[in-house]
């Protein structure tokens, strides 16, 4: 199963989603590899930090790759249960070749105007991916959602998404929680940390992802 996390925007939580899904899949005993196709290399750093700072947790192997990812991903797919791909937050050969080779595309978004404003452009791109890869399952995922009960941001954003049937949402939302930032430099996922709320939302996300496959 090849799962790409992609977006036309930076800072939406792509790498956070990739590494947390990787940690949970490893915890569940799956064979996982992360393909870091973003020159910023956030996920590769996380993998290095994991080896150095959290050696008690199961190793997550990773590779860095630029350009056309197709053959690399297909080759890895024959060996691993899950090939998780992290691409840069812009239109790129890496995102296009990954999305047209993947089984699933996860699209993280913050529930706020800059992320929602690019939806028409991104949905056009998704339609191109689907032309080449009709089996691709695409799901939007709200991340960094405000935790205060009075905020209407998430509800408002969800109603905007209702106008984009090409981008159905995960039922799960990842909320703004310090745990996601705290675990990153340790090379851990929130499922390997003391935040029960963050852990629960990542576990539900991974269960949904497995069910979509
Ligand atoms: N749910 C969350 N709660 C709190 N902080 C978060 C959450 N998700 C991401 N962050 C923080 O937001 C920042 C951006 O996240 P991340 O690096 O995952 O985004 P990205 O889409 O991969 O960015 P880039 O385009 O730069 O690769 C990081 O500092 C990360 O720790
Ligand atoms: Mg990133």
Automatic annotation (TrEMBL):
Database matches in CDD domains: ParAB_family (cd02042)
Superkingdom classification of source: Bacteria
Protein name: AAA family ATPase
Pfam family name, one: MipZ
